[in-house]
# Entry
Amino acid sequence: MPELPEVETIRAQLDPLVAGRSIVSASSHPSAKFTPAIEAHGAQIEQVRRRGKYLLLDLDDQRELIVHLGMTGVLSVPEQAGDSPYVRAQWELDDGRWLVFNDVRRFGRIRVVPAGDYASITTLRDLGPEPSDAAFTAQHLHRALNKSSRRLKTQLLSQRPVAGLGNIYADEALWLAQVRPTARSISKPAAARLRDACIEVIESAISNGGTTLRDYRNAEGGSGNNQFYLRCYGRAGEPCERCTTPLRSMVVDARTTTWCPTCQKR
DNA sequence: CGCAGCGCCTGAAGGC
DNA sequence: TGCCTTCAGGCGCTGC
# Structure
């Protein structure tokens, strides 16, 4: 579930706790998804950045420690080593604290790569602009979406037209822009609305500390508040806030998708 | 190169 | 009560 707003919330909490700290030991679950965590042993963390849903920890030896939280990943910086059965990696820091990665469902991933070299992480390599980036214009989104005839919802989830939207915020942005998720092309005015909606939905979710529906916790173990402000996701059968038509849902590319059949036009 | 399809995971919730 | 099935879904990989 962690999408851009949740990952950004974690990034902001993590950075002051780990920046400047050296990694004095590292361990991981045996799965190849997590064993690269050990490669960061001995390096110093300079800062914590984010691209889309990826956390990028700059190391002082021209490498980056990259963490993707998957569905249920949680990072925290406790004063003792993690003891949950779901600890998938942990790094001991030189101030005695630990950077701990918990992930019940093991959908997360950890990698260490040369700084800026994302060739082996294709989703990150091909990631679209951040919603907040000046390059994320209506024209960009219009062109990017019309390059393919896949459904608009599917394209948003691909991370290529824009970075960081998952199932929750894709449904929210499409609802706000009044765009039909199953459409396979988009007009210029609709692309302009969708661009604005992506920014609005992501920025307000960051302000609300992210959305906690089941598993999401921030780096301090707290919940977000944005679940109280969702207007579409998870509300199938409830009246649309704009037009009172009951929201409908269907599975689009293996993901539950909710939309208003009246005011989200093709 | 684009993309459809599949596998990875396990706790929670629902059905009987 | 307890067993079984279904569901949640981001992304990497395979093969057409």
About this structure: The radius of gyration of chain A is 19 Å. Residues 33, 70-72, 86, 103-107, 148, 150, 214-215, 253-254 of chain A lie near DNA strand B (CB under 10 Å from a C1'). The longest helix of chain A spans residues 188-207. The longest strand of chain A covers residues 45-51.
